[in-house]
Specification:
The protein has a domain of about 90 residues. Helices cover about 40% and strands about 5% of the residues. The chain has three helices and three strands; from the N terminus they run E-H-H-E-E-H. The protein has a three-stranded mixed β-sheet, covered by helices on one side. The protein starts with 5 loop residues before the first strand and ends in a 21-residue tail after the last helix.
Length: about 140
């Protein structure tokens, strides 16, 4: 039986948020390479600027999905369970929200630096729901 959903603001989020930024950096770097940007120094500058701006948007931004609608705020959370089409939100288990001390824009340059400097901590394992270790979708 699935655990009921519990929203938490916990320092564990800090590591998850930093890992997420490393994944975004790796994805952006791969795209820049595929499209001919050979200079690692230039890719790093682009990644720093992009990730910092995206971080500010996550931390303080809003958007209006259509004219005359109220603004909504991005909220990046990490869950223990995949939110599939048939997953009831009440069965997500623990959902991690940013800790009071976490800010994406403040982590941005450090995460990009870790990635481009070859820090093993910036090499984050990823996958899809179909290959989640020990869990069926």
């Amino acid at each position: 039986m699935a655990k009921s959903t519990k929203l938490v603001r916990d320092e564990a989020y800090d590591e998850m948020g930093a890992a997420y930024q490393c994944v975004v950096t790796a994805t952006l770097d791969a795209a820049l390479k595929r499209h001919g940007m050979k200079s690692a120094a230039t890719r790093r500058k682009v990644a720093e600027e992009f990730l910092f701006a995206l971080g500010e948007f996550h931390d303080t931004g809003w958007l209006r999905p259509a004219d005359a609608t109220a603004p909504v705020y991005p909220l990046l959370a990490f869950g223990e369970r995949f939110l599939n089409l048939d997953t009831p939100p009440a069965a997500l288990g623990t959902v991690y929200l940013p800790s009071p001390a976490f800010a994406f824009h403040e982590y941005a340059h450090g995460c990009v630096g870790a990635y481009y400097d070859g820090d093993p901590a910036a090499q984050v394992g990823t996958g899809t729901v179909d290959d989640t270790p020990g869990e069926a979708p």
